[in-house]
Amino acid sequence: MSCAGKDKSGHSAATVKVRNRSGAADTYLVDMSFQDRDGSTLTTGRADVRVPAGKSRTVRVPLDDPSVSGTVVRCEVVSVL
């Protein structure tokens, strides 16, 4: 996972790899928390990704408030459903 990096278009997002260990394709919803150096949550983010059976896919999870991207020092996966 990479935390709050900018993509080619300049948008800040975390990059998360999601692995599907089941025998059927499924869609996963990834919820993230973006935190400052004190561990306080600055913003959150959410993205979904469809992953084939037994495979993994990478998804970019954008910050809900991209204006805080310069102060984000830690990203945490809150849930993958």
Write the layout of secondary structure elements.
Elements: E1 2-6, E2 12-19, E3 26-35, E4 41-51, E5 56-62, E6 74-80
Describe the structure.
Helices cover 0% and strands 59% of the residues. With 81 residues, the protein is mostly beta strands. The strands form two sheets. The protein has a three-stranded antiparallel β-sheet with strand order 1-2-5, with no helix packed on it. Strands 4-3-6 form a three-stranded antiparallel β-sheet, with no helix packed on it. Strand 1 and strand 2 form a beta hairpin. The two termini are 17 Å apart.
Summarize, please:
The protein has no helices and 6 strands.
Order of helices and strands: EEEEEE
Q: How many angstroms separate the termini? A: 17 Å
Overall geometric form: elongated
Unreliable stretches: none
Number of strands: 6
Radius of gyration: 13 Å
Query: What profile does the largest beta sheet have?
Result: 3 strands, antiparallel
Number of helical stretches of at least 4 residues: 0
Helix content: under 10%
Mean pLDDT: 92
How are the strands ordered across the major sheet? Answer: 1-2-5
Structural class, please? mainly beta
Strand content: over 45%
